[in-house]
From TrEMBL:
Keywords: Signal. This is DUF1573 domain-containing protein. PANTHER family: LIPOPROTEIN-RELATED, SIGNAL PEPTIDE PROTEIN. Pfam families: DUF1573 (PF07610). Residues 1-20 form the signal peptide. The keyword Signal applies. It comes from the Bacteria. The keyword Ribosomal protein does not apply. It comes from Cyclobacterium xiamenense.
Amino acid sequence: MKRLATLVLTIVFSAGLAWAQEKTADGPVITFEESSKDFGDITQGDKVENVFTFENTGNAPLIISNVAATCGCTVPSWPKEPIAPGKKGEIKVSFNSAGKMGKQNSVVRIYSNASAPIEKVSMISNVLPKGTR
């Protein structure tokens, strides 16, 4: 009897977990190829940029409503049109190290209608004074 109860509970739990995973898979899903780019050492005043490529791995159009950086030294640009399921898009981010020193982690937040409504990507660098490289 104990084994039967354990078996029934296992089946119910597994079915519930599968249903929950299926339910969360509905709608758009933003999946980045990479969520961070490390530039290593750069010289103060250098401008670096990266393109963060993503795919809508969900089953509905992905709409990015806003992309916001943590400071004015980081400027993002993103697609304004919906990204269809299975299609790719790009978020371009540039970082200006003028006036910065030391380790920098520029975080960009992506706001969308995806199942996880806020995603983050980051650009990391170590800004050295001019003339030290």
